[in-house]
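Subject: complex prediction, re-run

Hi both,

The earlier run crashed halfway through, so I resubmitted it with identical inputs.
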Amino acid sequence: AQSVTQLGSHVSVSEGALVLLRCNYSSSVPPYLFWYVQYPNQGLQLLLKYTTGATLVKGINGFEAEFKKSETSFHLTKPSAHMSDAAEYFCAVSPGGSTLGRLYFGRGTQLTVWP
Amino acid sequence: EAGVAQSPRYKIIEKRQSVAFWCNPISGHATLYWYQQILGQGPKLLIQFQNNGVVDDSQLPKDRFSAERLKGVDSTLKIQPAKLEDSAVYLCASSLAPEARLSYEQYFGPGTRLTVT
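This time it finished cleanly. Structure:
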């Protein structure tokens, strides 16, 4: 069975501070991993993805994430938060293989950035 | 490149009524997905189409939900009759994946927010 756990439904940081959003997954086969961002009243936008190769992946808007197989984690980070980063962030896993490319999402983490 | 289009953006209905949502995917995208996003939760896949065929509808409540993708382009999702617990945002996504098993990037539309009273 596949599942995604995002620790912390709400994260608050000051502008300029480090952003760390946690994601752990379970998958019976090597997964593809994704982070999406959702702004109010909008659809989801892909921030970054891991499929194969380098375990540290860089995405848009200065975000990056590291795939750690031993910890079954894919945490999202950004060195310096900006006000425009305030949004909801979703971690998702696609187990690959014969599982039809479907995505399993976590419950989301709402990021608030204080001035 | 135009994104995934959905309509309507908002819909309010009473329970036991019916409702339909429309999705137009990005041109050339073979795979289309409908997700349900209940407040406070992540999106949950309802149904996945590859061209005009259904490849996964295991999470679709078939007693009340139906979906079709005629001609492998536009898609409609219908609920009949609606229940209070159907209140959610319904997201449509599409991807280039030439085969259903391949995990290509999914592009999401803005969603339709349904309120059932």
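Chain B is about 0% helix and 45% strand.

- K.
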